Amino acid sequence: MKKLAVLFLLLAVFGCAPSSQWVKPGSNETDFNRDKYTCLREAQQTYTVASVDVVSGSAEQGSRTNIELFQTCMLAKGWRQEAANRNSESSANSASRQNRKQLEIDFKNLSDELSRVCLKPDFEILRRKSPCSVGDFTQAQLSDKENVSDAERVLLLKQMEESQKIRSQMAMTVRSGGSNYDRKLADILENAARDYGYDILALSERKITWGSFNNLRKQRNAALQAAVKAARN
User: Which one of 39, 100, 122, 209 is most buried, counting C-beta atoms within 10 A?
Assistant: First the structure.
């Protein structure tokens, strides 16, 4: 089921040809990738979401790509966006197709890295309560009434820190495609990562049980797939 979920996202994110592309006379794919990743780094903005109640407080920190800063940076380096021409066999379009393929590879590598984080031996205790794939839930896990233990809480927050960095990179990779479609999908992935963070914090603060958390994971995953499909229309 995990491989099917990754395949779905790969097809949804990269299965459509981009409606626009970055071009710069006299430049090649290497030039584009260098400038793209430089601008992505410069366009990262940190955000913090705080949650406070009468018992406790918490904060989640992450980063998002400011698309206006990214575009301004690319323009300053001499790149411009043009509508993709499917009938053209120009070297620019060839470079664009190669870049699209590289983005697909980068996204797949990040997806695999995210899976490896979940499968770390250190997190085995967490997998007993909530499997890596939403397709592997048992009925007992979905109806689990237990709250997170102190030992589980430490591991849970460690896992969230590692996985959220990868989720942020996945959104950055998609956004770097440059089209409106890519930006929509990057927003969807960033929102999904934010919601995941909210749910992890709620579980770690014992505001929800393991069963509630697992059911939320299923609902979030279904909503993510629906949003990705809607973005293609």
Answer: 39
pLDDT in tens, 167-213: 999 999 888 888 888 889 999 999 999 999 999 999 999 999 999 99
Q: How far apart are CA 90 and CA 102, in angstroms?
A: 19
Largest CA distance in the chain: 63
Please identify every stretch of the chain with a pLDDT value under 70, giving residue numbers as ranges. Answer: 1-20, 46-64, 83-97
CA 229 distance to own-chain centroid: 16
Distance CA 150, CA 140 (A): 21
3-state secondary structure the chain: CHHHHHHHHHHHHHCCCCCEEEECCCCCHHHHHHHHHHHHHHCEEEEEEEEECCCCEEEEEEEEECHHHHHHHHHHCCCEEEECCCCCCCHHHHHHHHHHHHHHHHHHHHHHHHHHHHCCHHHHHHHHHCCCCHHHCCHHHHCCCCCCCHHHHHHHHHHHHHHHHHHHHHHHHHHCCCCHHHHHHHHHHHHHHHHHHHHHHHHHCCCCCHHHHHHHHHHHHHHHHHHHHHHHC
On whether the CB atoms of residues 190 and 209 are closer than 8 A, the answer is no
Mean pLDDT (the chain, rounded): 81
The one-letter code for the residue type at 71 is Q
